[in-house]
Write a structure and sequence with these properties.
With 209 residues, this protein is an alpha/beta fold. The protein contains seven helices and nine strands. It has helices at 2-8, 33-53, 70-84, 102-116, 146-156, 169-174, 179-190; strands at 19-26, 58-63, 88-92, 122-128, 130-132, 141-143, 165-167, 193-195, 198-200. Strands 1-2-3-4-7 form a five-stranded parallel β-sheet. Strands 5-6 form a two-stranded antiparallel ribbon. A hairpin with a 2-residue loop joins strand 8 (193-195) and strand 9 (198-200). Helix 2 (33-53) crosses helix 3 and helix 3 (70-84) crosses helix 4 (102-116). The longest helix has 21 residues, at 33-53.
Length: 209
């Protein structure tokens, strides 16, 4: 991959945004000291390998169904990110998967955001733009409504410049063709940003307005 990037550009930082470790960490793992050490060792080693291939920020994602002790969990996330030198935590809101309620989700995101404020690592809230499909016995999802998506965006926005990610556009907008997916697509297109004359789709940014 590094060779491919260098073939395209002599300045990789202009086309390479960074790494994403796709293993989603359940916050409950961080409450067990032995499992916390295991996760920390894994993220530390993985980050070192990725950075040796191509320098850039490294992100990891997490979720939880723990509705209590947000400050305690935020502290564990903060220590994990510091010890493993991770750069970005993509923290899922858990609302689409019905792991959390709006108030508890906001409390957790607020606690993590506060804990990270004095650190070099950052947190990006991940808004789940789906619902569990009630017609299926197993875990399958369908696009949520625009109104629900807006309320979830508002739930995790603590400042105008606070970055937010949507999960997931590819599964619930590009692969679906129904009213909800089309409404979300329209909303995103109406909220694109223009930078230096180049129009950027909100789907490719982390700060939908």
């Amino acid at each position: 991959m590094k060779a491919q990037i260098l073939y395209v550009s002599s300045e990789p930082n202009k086309i390479f945004a960074g790494w994403y470790i796709s293993d989603e960490i359940d916050g409950e793992l961080l409450l067990d000291s032995n499992l916390r050490k295991l996760v920390t060792r894994y993220t530390t080693q993985t980050r070192a390998i990725l950075k040796s291939i191509l320098p850039g920020p490294v992100a990891i994602s997490g979720y939880t169904d723990l509705n209590s002790k947000p400050k305690k969990l935020a502290g564990h996330w903060d220590k994990l990110m510091s010890k493993s030198s991770m750069d970005i935590l993509l923290l899922q809101d858990g609302l689409g998967a019905k792991l959390m309620e709006p108030y508890s989700s906001r409390s957790l995101h607020n606690a993590v955001s506060t804990a990270f404020r004095k650190q070099k690592h950052t947190v990006i809230p991940v808004v789940e733009i789906f619902e569990i499909d009630p017609r299926t016995a197993d875990f399958k999802t369908i696009p949520t409504t625009v109104g629900t998506m807006k309320s979830r965006l508002k739930n995790v926005r603590f400042a105008p410049g606070n970055p937010v990610a949507l999960f997931s556009l590819s599964s619930h907008v590009l692969k679906f063709d129904n009213k909800h997916s089309r409404d979300i697509e329209t909303f995103l297109k109406q909220n694109t940003k223009v930078c230096n004359g180049i129009e950027l789709e909100t789907a490719n940014t982390s700060t939908p307005q």
